[in-house]
């Protein structure tokens, strides 16, 4: 049985690799080599990646691809996308091309406010905490002056502080709600530093507040942290065209538009569908979030909470047909940055920003919302017409061929054959068996 290890983080990288190989990878004689195969040849670049996290052993590659032809507010973009899902970039590219020929995407940022909370207990009189809050509020503001200085100079910083009473839901529970403008930064470090500084001030001032002293009842801070729920940091993206313009070789525009709108209505009504529908949207959003070194867990958490804001979980996209026009749009809460974090550290992230023509955070929000809308358009279009498996399995074919260790010639023959035939794992196995006989 494996034993716990102490002082692991202090070991050298070579010692860590030796330890994992000896303790968990005994059955794989190639394990050390596999880890080393993914090291960067340039030691300084490898060091950069090693330093992103603790206990780095190797690098985990994901494809970095490009979806071109995104016309957004009249400007042409090629979107860098990082994803492991074979059909995502192809679907985005198809949707981009489709809408390029129909006027492109329009996108606008609705709001950019971030927020955080100081959660605390208070079991005294409600009036006392309200009085205290009014007195302490300017002191809380003053206490973060140093942290805020640079952000403020650029036009951002703390916006508002308010006291929220939640004691009717959880006995003695209150929080201070703090709102921020963090400009081109996602702002997590900035917000958390401000909140933690304000906690110190809050606690110190509370200890000296006479009313609390008299009753010997003080507020007790439980924690302070930013919120990844950012419904006041909102972006909207849209496509629209005449219904007839949706007509393609295989589908008549009006019928397609009606089926499409119906599919969105189903995703608004039924959680089981909505989750998959929104997952498809996030295939596009996350791929750009990852390529630009942003925090996809934060984005995911916030987006899904937003999808459930009306007390049920529904579609993030909307569609309608009005006066012969088809309109399809998305509204997403996105707290993302173009400075700070990995954005200026990871060489591929820096390149992604160059490809995107150095957007600011607002522009990036628009690009991501468009990526989500395009991805959803591609998915729903397939779903209401051919089904997704045709396109999906075509893209997956190369993964199956690689899994089955097909040679270049075998791959070429398979690609030719599956232009006309449906792909399935078992069919590819038989195809290769036949070739190899
Ligand atoms: C697959 O990754 C995403 C889809 O399931 C999305 C959807 O169903 O809308 C195709």
CA radius of gyration is 27 Å
Q: What order do the helices and strands follow?
A: HHHEEHEEHHEEHHEEHHHEEHHHHH
Q: Would you identify the regions where 5 or more consecutive residues have pLDDT less than 50?
A: none
| E-strand count | 10
Query: Spatial order of the strands in the main sheet?
Result: 3-8-10-9
- Bound ligands: (R)-mevalonate
The figure for the number of domains is: 4
Report the portion of residues in β strands. 15-25%
- Measured distance between first and last alpha carbons: 45 Å
**Large-scale geometry:** globular
The CATH topology name of the largest domain reads 3-hydroxy-3-methylglutaryl-coenzyme A Reductase, Chain A, domain 2
The overall pLDDT, averaged over residues, is 96
The CATH superfamily title of the largest domain = 3-hydroxy-3-methylglutaryl-coenzyme A Reductase, Chain A, domain 2
Helix count equals 16
Major beta-sheet overview = 4 strands, antiparallel
Helix content: 40-55%
CATH class of the largest domain: Alpha Beta
Could you say what the CATH architecture of the largest domain is? Alpha-Beta Complex
What class do helices, strands and sheet pairing give? alpha+beta
Summarize this, please?
With about 425 residues, the protein is an alpha+beta fold. The protein has helices at about 15-25, 30-35, 45-50, 90-100, 125-145, 145-155, 190-205, 210-215, 255-270, 270-290, 295-305, 345-355, 360-385, 390-405, 410-415, 425-435, and strands spanning about 65-70, 75-80, 105-110, 115-120, 155-165, 175-180, 220-225, 235-240, 315-320, 325-335.
